[in-house]
Amino acid sequence: MTSQARAAIILAAGQGTRMKSLLPKVLHPVGGRAMLDHAIDAAEGLGCERIVVVVGTHSPQVRAHVEARLGAEAVAVQDPPLGTGHAVLAAKAALSGFDGQVIITYGDVPLLKAGDIEGAFGGEGVTVVGFEARDPTGYGRLLIDADGGLEAIVEHKEASPDQLKVTVCNSGVMAAPAALLFDLLAEVKNDNAKGEYYLTDVVELARGRGAPTRAVYADEDAVMGVNAQAELAQAEALFQKVQREMALAAGVMMPAPDTVHFAWDTQVEGGATVEPYVVFAPGVTVAAGARIRAFSHLEGAAVGPGAEVGPYARLRPGANLGAKVKIGNFVEVKNVRMDDGAKANHLAYLGDAAVGAGANIGAGTIFCNYDGVFKHRTTVGQGAFVGSNSSLVAPVTIGAGAMVGSGSVVTQDVPDGALALARARQAVKPGWATRFMAMMKAKKAQKS
Ligand code: UD1
Ligand code: CA
Q1: Residue 261 annotated as catalytic
Q2: Looking at the CA of 159, which ligand is closest?
Q3: Does ligand 1 come within 6 angstroms of the Cβ of 108?
Q4: Do 272 and 123 sit in the same domain of this protein?
Q5: What tens digit of pLDDT does each residue of 393-423 get?
Q6: Which residues are found with C-beta within 5 Å of the ion, ligand 2?
Q7: Considering the entire predicted model, what is its pTM?
Q8: Is residue 322 domain-resident?
């Protein structure tokens, strides 16, 4: 009897050449998160105490990604890639001493969730996750006996004409006790159409020794694999569909859901409104009663209750908006805390700052936060009023209730309640324009 501890082996050593991409395949994002991270999330969701990712030597980026998230002990290198069975064997050393259940998943199957494959655990033998394929071309077929038991998996290239008619396919996900799995893999040979060591051969080998084999089933969409850009886009579309349905079910008012793009971790509370063509990059929370207006882009931002953002606003990481804050069109906000009721309604850049409650930042204002080498902070006190087209050259503080005259370039702190004017004094010359125009017109008449 093996222990019921769980481990996962995630295969990610394939080259992914069909992506025709500069990025390794498994690092391509779905919902703003690398496909490989989705696979690791599922393994963690299953309660796997050990997770090993099998990587190839061709992608140091993938290795670095796994090391950063799970540590160096989670990496197993397969060199060269000689098939899925060979890939799983490459993880054997990393799992030495582990005697529980092992589940095998793929780094390029981004929509699979823990709940979809929980049923694969628990058997004493080999369990394969199958699915009913709309188009089985290319997949391994599950051969099911009269009693509903799993006899074997036959790869597309090896299948007979009758076997090719089978539409129940192998998702690639498989679970088995560690000792049995590695025992069986030691017997797998590569005398097949691709000259590879097929993981799928362990089913027949298990049967041969009288070990139990069975299939459990998942939804085709959940197990879809990504091999080319078109499939990545398809996975993204399926992912977005689910996110939109969840947002609507939670009570988000979203009149054109198909135009709204969510990230894997977007949190919009019920009672918020999201207008058409809004894009949520990762790390965004939106509170109830807030309204995200059309064509806005948000990333790493928190939007407070009753706040209004956009249309055409950009919230970048660290934008933290309190209740009833207003960020209007063509305003960019980065790493700024805006306290309750603060406003920046038109055409402004607010970066690295704290803006007090009820402060008003006029149209065209720029927080000049960068001197070419360092970033500096701007502080605007509660209830301050910054006139239009001002430049606040950080580091600088505008006091509570202070005013900045329109068009000022502010380089020194402004005390509470003071008015700062930092612009050329206006000169008025009576009659000058009339005389000037008359003179110029006379010159033109002389020339022609
Ligand atoms: C595999 C299955 C097939 C199943 C299909 C589901 C086998 C022999 N076939 O076929 O039954 O229907 O997946 O999509 O298992 N990989 C490695 N090292 C290798 C080879 C592959 O890490 O040497 C990884 C790949 O990166 C990929 C996964 O394993 O993530 C599957 O490999 P792939 O070559 O795409 O297998 P298929 O031929 O699609
Ligand atoms: Ca594949």
Answers
A1: no
A2: 1
A3: yes
A4: no
A5: 999 999 999 999 999 999 999 999 999 999 9
A6: 225
A7: 0.94
A8: no
